[in-house]
Design goal:
The chain is of the alpha/beta class. The chain contains eleven helices and 15 strands. Strands 7, 8, 9, 10, 11, 12, 13, 14 and 15 form a nine-stranded parallel β-sheet that branches. It has a four-stranded antiparallel β-sheet with strand order 2-3-1-4, covered by helices on one side. The chain has a two-stranded antiparallel ribbon with strand order 5-6. Strand 2 (about 30-35) and strand 3 form a beta hairpin. Helix 3 packs parallel to helix 4. The chain starts with a strand and ends with a helix. Bound molecules: phosphoenolpyruvate (PEP) and manganese (II) ion.
Length: about 375
């Protein structure tokens, strides 16, 4: 059972205290408080844990400070929409508003290789007004003989250059607790010039200790990449591990599924699941066209497959695009064949804008004609 309080209720409100006291007066009931800071409002939810079937809703509904009482019927307790009873609120991080209504392009290096490449990439993003990027320092590779990322040694210049070029968020994969400490240390040493979104890669989609680790901290939001060979429900349960630990700032990323039925793409593109994840959960949804397509193939109409699948995500309401770019893909140490050139970015952005506009028109049409 979830008691949703009216928006912007102060943390020390006596009304909030009274609702908690009443909740805990029922036998076996414990409470857990979740505060969500969205771009325009903050929301407080009280989770009642224990034998809630014996707890009536009416005494809570009488409080002026209570917006509604929601009985949970589905398994995704913290991230779920619960049959549309709960609205998505999104979150604000380092000046960037991320929700089921917004769209951001996180374009950047799959793996950091040189300071020069980082600088060229960030400079190109700045010119295009983009403040969100990706930069891999810790790379879990399929082969132990492949480049494993530069690790902590590149963090000082990555963060410093991010500050120089106005980057507000860097999506960066971590695979171990020590990486989180190294990121914190790197940010401290450089004066916290940027924000970091911790990426959980598909290879760690069910690494429950790692999920608990990123869920128990609330400093950094999390980009969770769907498990490549598990069901959607299993991936959503993995997000529930993060959220139930206390961190609600999660973005769910579709990145294709492992099956040779998707050949010749690297993974079978699963972007039709954007609206499914938005319906089942309150999480903003990201699509990763680079790791799903995995190559720079061009269709007869002149558009790269990466552009086409990005459009498929955006036309169904994706909120974030994670894409590999590189100033010299031929010399990239990881995933060069799928990276867009910096010179291809303006056309990519223009293409996305066309599709986003079409999505917004579709949404407006649905709202007016279908009463959605
Ligand atoms: C990545 O985004 O760098 C990556 C390795 O992706 P995935 O975990 O989806 O394979
Ligand atoms: Mn990659």
């Amino acid at each position: 059972m979830i008691i949703v309080m009216k928006a912007d209720l102060p943390e020390d409100s006596t009304d909030l205290r009274r609702v908690i006291t009443l909740s805990e007066s029922f036998p076996g009931i414990n409470t857990r408080i979740h505060r969500i800071q969205g771009a325009t409002r903050s929301l407080t939810e009280i989770y009642l844990l224990g034998p809630t079937h014996a707890v009536p809703s009416a005494p809570f509904e009488e409080f002026d400070c209570v917006e509604k009482v929601v009985r949970i019927t589905q398994k995704f307790r913290a991230i779920g929409r619960h049959d549309a009873a709960l609205e998505p609120v999104g979150f604000e991080y380092n000046g960037v508003d991320i929700s089921q209504d917004t769209l951001h392009l996180f374009a950047g290096l799959c793996a950091v290789d040189t300071r020069e490449h980082v600088e060229a990439t960030f400079a190109a993003l700045k010119q295009l007004g983009i403040v969100t990027t990706r930069a891999g320092a810790y790379k879990p590779r399929t082969s132990p003989y492949d480049f494993q990322g530069l690790g902590a040694s590149c963090l000082p210049y990555v963060f410093e250059l991010a500050g120089k070029y106005g980057i507000r968020i860097i999506a960066m994969e971590i695979t171990h607790e020590s990486h989180l400490d190294e990121i914190r240390e790197g940010l401290d040493r450089t004066g916290r010039p940027t924000g970091v979104m911790l990426q959980i890669g598909t290879r760690n989609a069910q690494n429950y200790e790692l999920l608990k680790l990123v869920g128990q901290q609330t400093e950094f939001p999390v980009l969770y990449k769907r498990g490549m060979g598990i069901t959607l429900e299993e991936s959503l349960n993995a997000c529930e591990y993060i959220a139930s630990g206390g961190n609600r700032r999660i973005v769910f990323c579709l990145r294709g599924m492992k099956t040779n039925l998707g050949d010749p793409h690297r993974n079978f593109v699963d972007f039709a699941h954007v609206p499914v994840v938005k319906r089942l959960t309150r999480l903003p949804v990201c699509v990763d066209p680079s790791h799903s397509v995995g190559r720079k193939a061009i269709a007869p109409d002149g558009l790269l497959d990466v552009f086409h699948v990005t459009a498929q995500g955006v036309i169904t309401g994706a909120n974030m695009i994670l894409v590999d770019i590189h100033p010299h893909p031929e010399s990239a140490l990881c995933d060069g064949p799928q990276a867009l050139l910096l010179e291809e970015l303006p056309a990519f952005i223009a293409d996305i804008a066309i599709v986003r506009e079409a999505y917004e028109k579709r949404r407006a049409l649905a709202r007016s004609s279908l009463g959605a």
